[in-house]
Specification:
Blueprint lengths: L6 E7 L3 E7 L4 E5 L2 H11 L4 E7 L6 H7 L6 E4 L11 H9 L2
Parallel strand pairs: 1-4, 4-5
Antiparallel strand pairs: 1-2, 2-3
Helix pairs in contact: 1-2
Length: 101
């Protein structure tokens, strides 16, 4: 029997950008960390049935995104806390973090 992995999204949040990786789909994009960027992110995520979203936050830059993500009612969000900048150097690092969830 084939095992289906839950669609998970990892987001690296900075003051200016959101680096996003979808696993196992493999989609990866960068969005601006603005209301417009949050809407674009949510629209982009609509192509999958997301089960969980994991993100790391830097300072206060995650708060508006966190509110925007409440519009996606079919998934769970998981705040991962602050991670060292070297760990989250790119969305590829996010993909490695997401695959370990």
């Amino acid at each position: 029997m084939e095992s289906v992995l839950p669609q998970t999204v990892g987001i690296d949040i900075s003051k200016v950008t959101l680096d996003v990786f979808a696993y196992p789909a493999g989609g990866e994009r960068r969005f601006s960390n603005t209301a417009k960027g949050h809407k674009e992110l949510i629209d982009w995520l609509a192509q999958w049935q997301i089960e969980r979203i994991a993100y790391e936050a830097t300072g206060v830059y995650h708060r508006q995104l966190e509110q925007a993500l409440t519009m996606i009612r079919t998934c769970h969000t998981c705040f991962c806390g602050e991670l060292p900048a070297a760990t989250i150097a790119s969305s590829r690092a996010v993909s490695a973090a997401v695959t370990s969830i």
